[in-house]
Design brief:
CATH architecture of the largest domain in chain A: 2-Layer Sandwich
CATH class of the largest domain in chain A: Alpha Beta
Number of strands of chain A: 15
Radius of gyration of chain A: 20 Å
CATH topology of the largest domain in chain A: Dihydrodipicolinate Reductase, domain 2
Oligomer: homotetramer
Structural class of chain A: alpha/beta
Largest interface: A-B, 39 and 39 residues
CATH superfamily of the largest domain in chain A: Dihydrodipicolinate Reductase, domain 2
Shape of chain A: globular
Chain lengths: 370, 370, 370, 370
């Protein structure tokens, strides 16, 4: 992420969409704010944080003033800021609902980190709140905004791999700090499943354009490991899709860093390894002609999200991954936890429509579009 | 497999163990018989086949005479051949039991192709028959006789990968010919599971040295595909092991050729890809120091099996993969099919002992031993 | 190389071309004779060797009789064998000229191992002898008969890599045995250059379809290493081609096994690694779209050579790599040794014509042709 | 390069070394200044640029004031800045000598980008000027400050690869803009050789710890390509080292991006690919045991340079890559250009001492040291 001084942009700031970043954790500091600096359609106009010092340091570093920094109590003051058209919620999962609803109330569009909420019910309430307030809601699924994942989807849906048979995905890493909020049930709502396993779930649904028909799951919470007193260490789950397609997923907070996606068809395959990293995604499409690793222009996943949502705001269009897309994943995750609890396969309500929970605006890929 | 003329061996033929190969299919022709030619402790002394012409062509090509070729009806005549100490059963699965029992009756040691039989009950009967007849029985699990799989096992069991968390394996290829015996239930006893999925099952059990505690499975038999009128196209299954270790396996007869094994621990991983091929196995062991792909001297998987069993015969020792090892896999496969049929998780009888179904003689790896 | 019994071929043996293999070393035993067994257009009809026992063992193993085995003194008796239409010379380099000329005299077509001879003068004499005798002469450059090398050539010549700029190739391995004939100047005529470095030279000329304009070379013959008392351990050389294309080549008999070829153009590249092995060649073609590793049907390099020359004999056409192709490499090798001796760049006689030393018949690739 | 707000460092700024960055091009903006922000021992205290606006934008973005920005005319005013202990020269090559000498005159230590100068004579003058002024001079060879390159050197020098035989390196990319200063002889002093080919040269010298004994070179300057009216498009060169070790190098401004280094010994090899990139270096060490890709903690090449030179200043020690190391490369590059001009091999003055031009302070690798 090269750091550049503010170079005049083709679009003036009047036209670019100003975001308030809500929450100044590692993701905001290391990825989101730098990404916003390179964005064509968006910029950071305000910061919301409980740590005043940190906020001011960031403000200074990013050409904002002390007046652009707000505490959580002052959140509603953003209503007065016409230049803040959207808020980006980067808080612990359990706070997503409250802040999305507060944002909706003051008429701001909302980009919310994944998982959208703690469960399908809360997630649906957030969708409803935004609809009522007539603001857009987007779930920040960065992997639906990369050329690699779109190329994987295209290969799968084009038929060139033949009939799709099986899918396999792993997303794991080691969470070392027992005090991390991600390991607290009240804040995170679960362990690796809603945090990193969600990528496997979300991208398999995206690549197929379909919803699973059933799930079977198992989870592990090792006794005596202080990290896993509240949340699971590992979830493994199986999803059945139409046509006998089956997907295996593994996610863990205590296994070597791994992120893979493999789709096997009768005539070919797609392999991504790594599949969900911020950078360096490696895609191989194989068929009877050989193996192909496509190249794409450089991009920033977070920058792509900023831009897509900003364009949706300008054009008044539903984003590709709206709140409904977040709800759809929570429906499946609720079923995964239920299966793990009962030891039984759980059937899901049939969804016939393709891409049923996705919006009308397709993301522009680098090199495409305006 | 370079073809060499008969070069005098250090051991005279009197001491080498003569095998009768029972069944002259593709595996015998392309792998087993050439492998035997390079074996240090074994040689092919006789052939049993229903196709006289084929048998004689083979005999000529391998320095045997017409007198060394038998029909299935003449099988018992092998009793008169003192130089035939062992038979290698390379017949369709449903014929394994009959020929193992016939071999036992005439006092020949038996090396039997995997799967050992059609189900655990038949497999156990074969073990019992050989025990009663006081002949050795070995299940031909070639992947337990390679340095790569042993290095994978050593990495997993040494603790250097940290606590083992999850395992993932795929074995698939495309079976094109609807008339193949492997697609006939009466001959094969199942589809890809007992044929190729068995490698995933067997090697996961081998690498951990443990038996699964439960399984959940799902299978797919596509309507209208003439290949899968009798057997399944795909099986996916999950196995739970002690300590919360979980293994995901996928096998298909209608998906791109794939053979992988991945074991993730908290501090490292083992990846084999390809994992189950005859040649070119690629093993990567990764930990915090880096990635390591060990090199091994050249070997032949089938030659290793011939040699191991020959040495067991000479030394009067139980082979590393005796009939019991074949039974153990059938127990799990029976449970997999039951789970797929009922949609329910199936609990297995606890087995506490490590390597409970394996023999006392460990395979010598290339470069080791006498 | 699976070993198969003699399965009836579409072409009857009357039509297939019978070869006499002259020389029963490792290459004949492990590669050539097994390859001939799988050939569609060729078969082994006779053997010429000084070791009677070895010849008879081979004969037995390959369905020949004692009458098909000849000593070198008896070479001219092959004249009486109408079924022997071609001889394949697999002798130490210094014997190539004599046996090619003897073969020509008795009217047999000649396939001769590379290098064709010891130097350009001898090589040209062999070409002349065959022309006078009206027999075909082919230099056995197996790498000009693989789909990978043709795909590399096509990528380079198609323009899709942009203007070609630089080429880099290495071919090395460790020669351990100080007594090997390859280390005797009188037999080999040089060290790694004519043996393995020749692949780099030959394939660079093939891929470009052009002849070098100048060479610069350096060689190393380490003192005190008994292996290199007569021949060089290592040759490094640079070749200049038209348009400023330059190629770097390294070859050694005392360096880790390596075989690579890299061609860099302004818009893309070709990488082969390994580039010259009998099996498992890996080709990557890269351009702005991505990286592509094409797949090809299985084939045998030696089988392809047998077939190509057999077809040339049947059709009366010049093979793709005739004697002239061998001469062309000797011209360059002579210049390489001269440069290494003088420390000076050596200019070569300009050759304008594309593929000037290649024949009219292009090899058929697997999957193509009749 | 994650962007972080100014987090209090263990060392106070009083002890950290303040640098003035001289020249605000792409390298300064995208690599050096961000790297300095993460440095433990160094920080950016001032900027020197001809573009006032750009300087002030940078100053704002990096927590400096307008008073910290100087024009080139004001360079000598840095003398008054006690907090500026070192200057980092990031100007076109032809300006290095002037600014190093001006820095020495005002008593500032100098870190100078590579190549140190335009030729060995100018480079030596810079070394002399710094010695007389009693300031330290370091050539910014970032690849001598990475754990990967040190591990490569250790593997080569430890003897575990056996006797080293041959080395091969390529560094190329496409320079598109005919107006780039790198394509102007007066500014750059050459084409790809002093810019990117220099990495091959410098790292081969580093890995061996030796100086070449002779060189042979060829260069290409295509007619009609406006980019190469002044400087060469491509240089290929061969270097001879003691013991018959030979190195082949290729560098081009008009070939697909490539950066490789391969060292072949009799018992093993080192391969780096990419070998010279800012990030993502991939090192493979291979011997008879297998292939090993070591892992290292995250680091920043430019940050490592800043820290090393800062530590040298604090400890009064010669840096690992002092001015003399830059001179040594110019000596070889002068010979390369001479050889290319004359078409003749050029002998170099023997240098017996190991690491003759390197300083006493070895770089600390990430994870090591204080």
């Amino acid at each position: 992420m090269p750091l550049k001084p503010e170079i005049p942009k083709p679009e003036s700031e009047v036209k670019r969409v100003g975001y308030a970043i809500v929450g100044l954790g590692k993701l905001s500091a290391e990825e989101l704010i730098p990404a916003a600096r390179t964005s064509e359609h968006a910029y950071v106009a305000a910061l919301v944080t409980s740590e005043e010092d940190k906020g001011e340091a960031f403000a200074r570093a990013f050409d904002l003033t002390e007046n652009d920094v707000y505490t959580y109590d002052e959140f509603e003051k953003l209503a007065e800021r016409d230049d803040v058209e959207a808020v980006y919620i980067v808080l612990p999962n359990s706070m997503h609902r409250e802040y999305v609803e507060r944002a909706a109330k003051i008429g701001k569009h909302v980009l919310c980190e994944k998982p959208l909420s703690l469960n399908a019910e809360d997630a649906q309430a957030m969708v409803d709140a935004c609809r009522e307030a007539d603001v857009l809601l987007m779930t920040a699924y960065r992997c639906q905004y990369t050329p690699e994942h779109w190329a994987a989807r295209d290969a799968v849906q084009s038929g060139k791999l033949g009939t799709i048979r099986v899918i396999d995905s792993i997303h794991a890493h080691v969470e070392d700090d027992p005090e991390a909020w991600r390991l607290k049930m009240a804040l995170a709502g679960g362990g690796p499943l809603p945090d990193i396993g969600l990528y496997s779930l979300n991208i398999i649904r995206f690549v197929l354009g379909e919803e699973p028909q059933w799930v079977f799951a198992d989870l592990h919470q090792p006794e005596g490991d202080e990290r896993f007193g509240e949340v699971e260490e590992r979830v493994s789950w199986t999803m059945g899709f139409s046509g006998g397609v089956v997907a295996h997923c593994l996610t863990s907070y205590a296994a070597q860093s791994t992120s893979t996606l493999r789709v096997l068809g009768e005539k070919g395959s797609v392999l991504m390894d790594p599949a969900f990293d911020y950078q360096g995604l490696k895609l191989t499409i194989e068929d009877s002609e050989g193996k192909f690793q496509p190249s794409f222009p450089a991009y920033d996943q977070f920058g792509n999200e900023f831009d897509h949502f900003a364009q949706c705001i300008r054009e008044g269009k539903t984003p590709w991954t709206p709140g409904e897309e977040g709800v759809a994943d929570h429906v499946v995750m609720d079923a995964i936890y239920e299966s793990a609890r009962t030891g039984k396969r759980v059937e899901l309500k049939p969804v016939k429509k393709k891409d049923a929970s996705r919006g009308e605006k397709k993301p522009e890929m680098p090199g495409e579009g305006a």
